Write the C-alpha cells for this entry.
Amino acid sequence: MSKLSNGSEQEIICYIDDIVAHKKENLYPQLCDFLHDNRSNKILDKAGLAIHTLNYERGLPCLVATILNSKTVNHRSTLIFCCSAFDCSEHLDDFVEVLRLSNYHAALEASMIIKENCKISNNLLRGKIEHIKTIYDGQSEDKKEILDDLIRFFENQIQV
C-alpha cells in the first residue's frame, strides 16, 4: 500500500477494483489497510465491499473494528452489510454494541447480521435477551422496535 498511501481517492478505488477484478490474493491484506486508514467513506465502502465480494474471511475483524470506530458512527450501514458474507458469531457482542450506539439504519443492519450470521448456543440466548433489555432504555422508538424484534427472535430460538 505504500505506493498508494498518498494516492487520490480515485486512484485507491481503481486499485481496489483491480484487486477484485483479478482476484489478487496476495493483495487482499491491503484491503484492511484501507479500512484502517479511514480516509474517506467511498474508500471504506469500496474496501468493505471488496472484502465481502472476495469472501476474504481474514478481513472480518478489520470490518468489525472499522464499524466500531467512532469515526464511522454516521457511516456504518454498508460496512455492516459487508459482514453478511461471514460467520459473525465471534462478534455477536460487537454487533449488539452497534445496535446500542448507531442510527436506525445501522442498527437494522446489525440486527440482520445477528439473526442471520451469528450462531448462538441455547445456553447463551437468555443472557443475550437480558443484555439487549439493558440497552432498551434511552433508545428511540424505531430502535426499540428493532430491539423488540431481536428479543422475540432470540426467544423463538430457545429450545425447551
The two ends are 52 Å apart (CA to CA).
